[in-house]
Amino acid sequence: MKRIICEATRQETFLPRVQLAAMDRRQQLCPASFRGSPSVRRIPSPKYKLDFYIHTSFSSPDADIVLISRDNVHFRIHSQLLRQTSGWFRTLLSLPNNAPQAGTPDALRLDEPSSVLDALLRIASAMEVPPLRPVDFCEEVLLAAEKYEMPGPASVVRVALTSSLLDAPPVRVYGIATRRGWVAEARAASARTLALDLFHPALRADMDKVDAPHLMALLRLHHARKQALREVLDDKKLFSSSTKGTTQCFSCGRRVDHIDWFQFKYNLLVMATVPSDTEILNSGDLQRVLEASCLHCNKTLYGAVTTRANLGEALKRLPTSVDLS
Ligand SMILES: [Zn+2]
Question: Which InterPro entries match (predicted)?
Fold first, then answer.
């Protein structure tokens, strides 16, 4: 642990001059995420021409530790909070030389930006949780929670990531969930990918982040779903119209073909993804099939209710989520 005397206590004279000189001038800029926000207060330090920012929600005057974010925002807090919520800090602060002292708080510079520490400490302090979006930010907070062994914040992020309210990209959530062994969340995310063409260039970055075995599981799901749809549509017991060639009209007994049915099948099977049950059952192609009539007697060729019911039941049996067993 690298310990320095915190400039937030205005005891700058204890801060080694060489360390001050090494501080990048960029640190004097207000962090972009807090620019114009009342959450951060600028503290001028004319003696060393170095300004820094203190987080107004974590500015306790009797704090015994100061966490400094990568972008130089100071979080003055009580070490007890860290001991209670973080295994990493509990171990760190239990070392004999690292016990914090009230009045002369030690400062600890962390790798995370202030926005991530803000979210992490707010959750740990039972304050109002900030919006955990976009998904990149959500994952950053999760990684920090895991790094500092903070199960509370990690569980909040887990819920947020898999909540439909966040509407996070499903492939990205799938990658995050599978890496952590979150089976239920991974299966739910895989179900949300069904409407996506996994080979679309827009998804390449998210797909690249999925571990190879789990990526294969996702591809297998999409492939199995398409194969199952093909088998359903080819099932002559369910749909006699799938018989090649012509069949007898149920009304007049003359030979009829099933062009509309085969067109419906073809249009479905050439799609990059298998549409949802609702989309298929409400499609214009299916409507055309159900309205198709015999050229000879003009009676409809198919029982609309039975055909729709058979198709609906068969579609329900299509796989909808990955098998991670
Ligand atoms: Zn007929």
Answer: BTB/POZ_dom, SKP1/BTB/POZ_sf
Domain end position, chosen among 123, 153, 168: 168
Q: Report the amino acid identity of residue 233.
A: L
In a domain, 186, yes or no: no
Kindly give the distance from the C-alpha atom of residue 267 to the centroid of ligand 1, in angstroms, as a whole number: 26
Give how many domains the chain has, as a whole number. 2
| Distance of CA 315 from the midpoint of ligand 1 (Å) | 29
pLDDT at 245: 78
Q: How far, in Å, from the CA of 301 to the mean position of ligand 1?
A: 8
Domain-located, residue 51: yes
What is the per-residue pLDDT across 224-277, written as a single tens digit (0 to 9) for each?
999 999 999 999 888 888 887 788 898 999 999 999 999 999 999 999 999 999
Strands of the sheet containing 4-5, edge to edge, are: 4-5, 106-109, 65-68, 73-77, 52-59, 40-43
Q: What is the pTM of this model?
A: 0.76
Ion ligand 1 — residues with CB < 5 Å: 249, 251-252, 294, 296-297
Nearest to 286 by CA among 317, 263, 315: 263
Same domain, 35 and 148: yes
Residue 183 counted as domain residue: no
Q: Count Cβ neighbours within 10 Å for each residue of 269-281 and write b for 16 or more, e otherwise.
A: eeeeebbebeebe
